[in-house]
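Hi,

Apologies if this is the wrong queue. I'm a grad student, and the batch job for NADH-quinone oxidoreductase subunit I from Geothrix oryzae produced an output file that my downstream script rejects. I'm not sure whether the problem is my script or the file. Here is the sequence I used:
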Amino acid sequence: MNKFLRTLIPADIAKGLSITGKHFSQVFFTANRRKVPLHIVSEYPEVPAKVQPRFRGRLTLLKDEQGEIKCVCCLACEKICPTQVITIEKGKKEGRKMPFPVRYDFEMERCIFCEFCVESCGFDSIILNHQFELAAYNREDFSLGTEGLGQNMFEPSHAGKFSVADD
Ligand code: SF4
Ligand code: SF4
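Support response: The file is valid. Your script probably expects a header line. Output copied below for reference.
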C-alpha cells in the first residue's frame, strides 16, 4: 500500500503537502489567528499596515509651530521635479516677510515618488508622508493643492478615502 502511495505521490510532494497542511491547520483551528506564533503574511486590511520609516508616500506641505506654511517659494522643488507635477504661485501675505505660496498645486497621478523635491528643499517645508492608500475613482481627485474643498496638501487626502483599512 505504502509502495503504491509512494508511486502515486512522490516523496517530495508528500512532504511539501504535509508541511502546508500543518501550517494550514495551525491557522484554521486557531480561534484568534493573531496568536499563531509565526506570521509571515500581514493581515492587512484588518490590521493596519506598518510602512518602513523611509517609505515615500504622498507629497505634503508642512507648517511651523505657529501654523504658518513653511514654504518660502524658492521654487527648487518645482524645478527639480522630473515629471513637473508641482506648480507654485509666489505671493505675499500680510505680516510675513518671506514669500508665501498663494498656490501650491500637485498633480499626484504623475508623481513618481522619487523624493527629489524633498531633498532639494532647503527649508524642510515638504515631506513624502506615509499615506499609501491613494486610490480614487476620478482623475480630478489626484489634483491636490492648497485651496478648495478637499484640496488639502497638509493632511491625508481625499484620494485615499477609499481605503479599505478605514471600513
Ligand atoms: S516625488 Fe519626485 S515626482 Fe513626485 S513631486 Fe517630488 S520630485 Fe516630483
Ligand atoms: S523647495 Fe521647499 S521652500 Fe522651495 S518652493 Fe519647494 S517647498 Fe517651498
